[in-house]
Amino acid sequence: MKAVAYSKSLPISAEDSLVDLVVDKPEPGPRDLRVAVRAISVNPVDTKVRLRAQPAPGEPPKILGYDAAGVVDAVGTAVTLFKPGDEVFYAGSIKRPGTNSEFHLVDERIVGHKPKTLSFAQAAALPLTSITAWELLFDRLGVLPGKTPDDRALLVIGGAGGVGSILIQLARRLTALTVIATASRPETQDWCRKLGAHHVINHRQPMPEQLKAIGHANVALIAGLTNTEQHYPAIAEIIAPQGKFALIDNPTTLDANLLKSKAASIHWELMFTRPSFETPDMIAQHRLLDDVSSLVDSGVLITTLANEITPINAANLRRAHEMIESERSIGKVVLHGW
């Protein structure tokens, strides 16, 4: 089968930073689905792993990729949730070979039924960011879905990226929170408003003053999706007493003492935790993705696909990695077709 992989951690401008390969078609384990991959999307984690996890001498080339949408080709002996022919979408596991291949193995407990109203490309944009945003909002920050009156605000730092694009929608459509997003360019600010943000401020300008101007000097819930180390002093200033701060990126330092006087809490979100440790609630990601699928088909959520490239090959994946590394992309970058 066709696949795209790498053997050395190289700048994406290098021609062999990602290469086309032909590898053996994998056989499913007891709880595995073998999926014929129709579309994939690229996330910041793809670029970070490429640069930080070089295969050791003698190891096979590493196949990246997490988001995928496709058709179940075969199932393991213990599979109960899916059958061959089912259309699915999912975000995979960081501990297994990735989705940048014609066929891919994934545990059924982290797979959802693809939204019927979306193409494979549109569906591939959703899994990783939907899981991350859902877990951050409902599991880590502890927000309860529903329209019960709630006078709190949620600040989404980096609202135009993949996770922010879903988080804005979930918070606006499934809760009564006031949603404040940050974006620095006119086009990204417009994107956040389109997705439902009540207010948009510029994270390249002092945030405390902008929040005061819109009547939210202190914010109870903050999602740090990008450049947390840079924004952390402002976060400590604007977070409300007993507030909650959840982050997904990788600051080299994070001084929890800055939040002590406010008894504010810090929460990490990593959507790979459940599949990596095979936690007892691992199947929550299957249920979550099925909920997202239903919300899409009912018109509550929309795909965040913004850039579509075809076919799936090394040259196009290098192009997609470049777009992600520029930190100027809006929404999701998707590749489809082999």
**Proportion of residues in extended strands:** 15-25%
The number of distinct structural domains comes to: 2
Quote the distance from N terminus to C terminus: 10 Å
Q: CATH superfamily membership of the largest domain, which one?
A: Medium-chain alcohol dehydrogenases, catalytic domain
Family: Belongs to the zinc-containing alcohol dehydrogenase family. Quinone oxidoreductase subfamily.
Keywords: Metal-binding, NADP, Oxidoreductase, Zinc
GO molecular function, one term: zinc ion binding
InterPro entries: ADH-like_N, ADH_Zn_typ-1, ER, GroES-like_sf, NAD(P)-bd_dom_sf, Zinc-ADH_QOR/CCCR
Write a structural description.
Helices cover 30% and strands 25% of the residues. It is globular and about 60 Å long. The protein folds into 2 domains: 184 residues, Quinone Oxidoreductase, Chain A, domain 1, CATH 3.90.180.10; 143 residues, NAD(P)-binding Rossmann-like Domain (Rossmann fold), CATH 3.40.50. α3 crosses α9. The termini are close together.
Key terms:
oxidoreductase; Zinc-ADH_QOR/CCCR; Quinone Oxidoreductase, Chain A, domain 1; six-stranded parallel beta sheet; 338 residues; 2 domains; seven-stranded mixed beta sheet; alpha/beta; single chain
Short description:
It holds the Pfam family ADH_zinc_N_2. The protein is of the alpha/beta class. The chain has helices at residues 44-52, 120-124, 127-140, 162-174, 186-195, 207-213, 228-238, 273-277, 284-297, 314-325; strands spanning 2-6, 19-22, 32-42, 62-63, 68-75, 87-90, 103-107, 111-113, 153-157, 178-182, 199-201, 219-224, 239-247, 265-268, 305-309, 332-336.
